[in-house]
Amino acid sequence: MADTIFALATAPGKAGVAVVRISGPNAKAVLGTLGVGNVPDRQASLRVLRGHDGCILDEAVVLCFSDGRSFTGEDVVELQLHGSVAVVRATLDHLSETGLARLAEPGEFTRRALMNDRLDLTQVQGLADVIDAETEQQRRAAVAVMGGAFGEQVSAWRAKLVRAMALLSATIDFADEEVPVDVWPEVREILSGLLRSLRSEVDGAGYAKSLRQGFEVALVGRPNVGKSSLLNYISRDEVAIVSDIPGTTRDVLEKPLDLNGLKVMFLDMAGVRVTTDTVEEIGVDRARQRANAADLRLFLRDSDADEDFGVDHKPDDLTVRTKADINADGDISVVSGEGVSDLLVSISDILSKRVEKASYVTRDRDVRRLTAAVEILDGIELSGHDMPDEIVVEGLRAASSELGHVVGDIGIEDVLDDVFKSFCLGK
Amino acid sequence: MKHPDFDVVVVGGGHAGCEAAHAAARMGAKVALVTLRKSDPGVMSCNPAIGGLGKGHLVREIDALDGIMGRCGDAAGIQFRLLNRRKGPAVQGPRVQADRAAYRSAVSAEMAKMSALTIIEGHVTDLLVSHGSVSGIILEDGAAVAGTSVILTTGTFLGGTIHIGDQSYPGGRLGSDGSIALAERLRGMDLRIGRLKTGTPPRLSAKSIDWAGLDAQPGDTDPVMLSFASKSPVLRQVDCAITHTNSETHDVIRANLDRSAMYGGHIDGVGPRYCPSIEDKVTRFAEKDSHQIFLEPEGLNTDWIYPNGISTSLPEDVQLRYVRSIRGLEAAEILQPGYAIEYDFIDPRCLSADLSLPDLPGLFLAGQINGTTGYEEAAAQGLVAGLNAARRCVDGDPVHFSRMTSYIGVMIDDLTTRGVTEPYRMFTSRAEYRLSLRADNADARLTSWGYEVGCVGEERAEQYQRKAEAVEGCTSAMKTVDVLPSDLAMHGVKVSETAKRRSLFDVLSSGQVDVDTAAALSPQVAEWPEEIQRQVHRNALYHTYEERQARDAMALERDEKVAIPSDLSFDGVSGLSTEVKDKLRLVKPQSVGQARRMEGMTPAALLTVLSEVRRHGRRKA
């Protein structure tokens, strides 16, 4: 019996509508986990989709098709979501966390349609082109995300995997020839280097996290510069306690907003300043840390004498002068509303550019596979490299196949090439 | 002279031919083996050894199917070594040093035992073809030998050329005028033909070697046989010796490189990377000032020594000079100079998985002609061709070897799907299910299946059945016996304080204890024969990995099950690139799974292939 698969059916990125398709025997059960039941077949129904914790993911048009009467011939559920990157991301995450379905491989929907006689040849050919493009795009996208440095990184991973396999294979398949008896010192070094590098890649896959939980934008500035007022103005909601007594905002306040389809978390920091109040000092410290870790910082000022209180300026960070209603050289004013919408456009432009770089369907798969590869290599390292060689090679093979669509397939010939280049073998 | 009609006619008496003829005869076919000389069967034309890593696996599989290579090797074995003894059983391979003469007589005796097998001495000049199918062969004297299936195992006869220095002459087993017509017929079939080369070392006289100063390489003290049916060596056991080339050897070779056939530009064929000539070694690994040479006796009653590691195409006088620069060989006499041989092979992607040529129904090819090297690779193909040639005579379905269950399947799939770029040799690394495809469990994988196919005799089947029952009994004993952490601690096994009681099988599979400890822990286990306990131990070691591999294999099975009809052409399909179409025409994949493994296949092309298969099915329905 086939398993259940899902994928984003529309192009990734910001759009009016994003369609997520689920196909397979669990399709309707998966819909159930979104808190949606009783959707009539072949009728558009507007439903609220909820995540595991009951939070609202989106309000979406849901369509159900029963097996035999669907695109793939299986049970199919189609979710027409708002075309927001964050919404799609959260929904896809939810789907794979259900454990009832997995992300589809390129062409898998079409393949199922074909196996169930749901397609004619002209349709197949049109789709085939798309799939070829998609497969190639996956690799390129993975490399493009991080630019040239990532490309080098990927080649290095590949070379390390091939080398480690070649060393071990040489001692296995050419046991009675002149190969080094113990290749483990080199293999050990290669594997720990590889593991370190893969692990930091997984840890640093921050785009995925930002997309799911929202980008963090920190409001930084001295007390009473107008951080809380700006936040209240944007959110039209009295989330922050606004007063003119310095130190009012002791905790970091979070305010999620939808900014042009992006989920953005504005952080209102405790006024960063030098203080003698211990409690307040904790607040200041925490604020500083959060601000440095945020995706973007908005430095608010109302005079030239302002300092940055230990918060770093990073590329793309914005500096704005507040209180334009009373300061002649101010950029924005929450009293008159002057400049605020321009500021929001600037923020959303900066963040959108980052999203575009992360072709997130690709990244999603990549992160999962990288994580799987890390787990395998970790297992080898945890054993103290004390597994039999043939089992270590088995692990390396599994890790290569996880990394295959990033580093390219590694076949026996690639390994043998390295073996014969490195060792003079043969009787 | 009129020969009686046969079911299967095998051309060539090498390792592929003998195994093919014997297999077809076991299947109940009436078989003719046509060879130049009746004494040809069982001749080892290269080094006097059988088995090794990957190769030993193939021999065990041939043996599990009741083939002859394993038992003949055991009968002729003068030194037995299990390679990789210190590694896990999945990568251990049995290897035997064989007495050439004894091996040949063992093979002859096996052939003689088959009453349905006739050996015909003669030159094959052409194939008989009627109604587009092969129907037999024609001999030099004009006589015809009729057969429903014909298997060509003619080694290097297609365009074979022997090179020694700057001299070359036509050579190869059938490299005489008589084979020209046969070669022309193959060439006329629009098959893709490539060129390969291989080399041999000069053979030395044992009497002329100073053995005293050389390191001896003895065989194992507890020999492991090639065949599941053999118990222990028959012949007296001997040592090999090891010596090394030195900088003087290398100087002689370097100074004469321009006189080497290979470096003098006389040879275009591609040689195997894993079997380089000494010229190659000295040139490509210039920083190494010494290479190992194994001096292998060719038998108990012969003066011939095979110096493994110095194959060459240098002229004879240079061969003598470099040989005599080597320690122990200072006064060595060369009995036969080394030479390189260049030959044509047929791109095996032209073949179906049963090793038949779809272009000429009834014709099968096996061995070196398909681009492989090695006795074991040849014999395994012979077996496959023999079984299928016999099946064809009774209109049976082809016998299919899967790469998930045998090294034979790995080889056949590699050859017919991906082709070769150098002489193909088996390595354990080629098998993605290596942990499951072990030399020790070849019988468990293949013997019962072979009995159903019809190539395994009663005796062998019963022998295996008894072993299988014992292994099962011992396994369930190990699974029912629970071991307490304290029991393990008593036997010196480190256990954590939180460890729970586990079955003996689980403990064995964790690799924490050996068989002796297991037997000491449980009288139920100890009552089984030691060899059975060891087999259960080997199974237990890979138990968890085998389960995982079985799951992977199941996912692949899906594509393997979608057959591509042989009458389906992709030529007119618009969604496929010319390159993919060419490959499909050449390989003629028999399943979508095989198509997927083809070089240059993209997911989209595969989808188009799949859709054509579906459409074809609908048209027929």
From TrEMBL, chain A:
Binding site for Mg(2+): 228, 249
Keywords from the UniProt entry: Cytoplasm, GTP-binding, Hydrolase, Magnesium, Metal-binding, Nucleotide-binding, Potassium, tRNA processing
Domain MnmE helical, first and last residues per copy: 121-424
Binding site for (6S)-5-formyl-5,6,7,8-tetrahydrofolate: 21, 78, 118, 427
Entry-linked PANTHER family: TRNA MODIFICATION GTPASE GTPBP3 (PTHR42714), TRNA MODIFICATION GTPASE GTPBP3, MITOCHONDRIAL (PTHR42714:SF2)
Subunit structure as annotated in this protein's UniProt entry: Homodimer. Heterotetramer of two MnmE and two MnmG subunits.
Protein name: tRNA modification GTPase MnmE
Gene encoding the protein: mnmE
From TrEMBL, chain B:
Binding site for FAD: 12-17, 124, 179, 368
Protein family membership: Belongs to the MnmG family.
Top-rank taxon: Bacteria
Ligand binding (NAD(+)): 271-285
Subcellular location: Cytoplasm
Name of encoding gene: mnmG
Pfam families: GIDA, GIDA_C_1st, SAM_GIDA_C
Record text on subunit structure and interactions: Homodimer. Heterotetramer of two MnmE and two MnmG subunits.
Record-linked SMART domains: GIDA_assoc_3
Keywords attached to this entry: Cytoplasm, FAD, Flavoprotein, NAD, tRNA processing
Cofactor: FAD
Domain tRNA uridine 5-carboxymethylaminomethyl modification enzyme C-terminal subdomain residues, every copy: 540-611
Protein source organism: Jannaschia pagri
HAMAP family (UniProt xref): MnmG_GidA (MF_00129)
Protein name as it appears in the record: tRNA uridine 5-carboxymethylaminomethyl modification enzyme MnmG
InterPro entries, A to Z: FAD/NAD-bd_sf (IPR036188), GIDA_C_N (IPR049312), MnmG (IPR004416), MnmG-rel (IPR002218), MnmG-rel_CS (IPR020595), MnmG_C (IPR026904), MnmG_C_subdom (IPR047001), MnmG_C_subdom_sf (IPR044920)
SUPFAM superfamilies linked: FAD/NAD(P)-binding domain (SSF51905)
Role according to the record: NAD-binding protein involved in the addition of a carboxymethylaminomethyl (cmnm) group at the wobble position (U34) of certain tRNAs, forming tRNA-cmnm(5)s(2)U34.
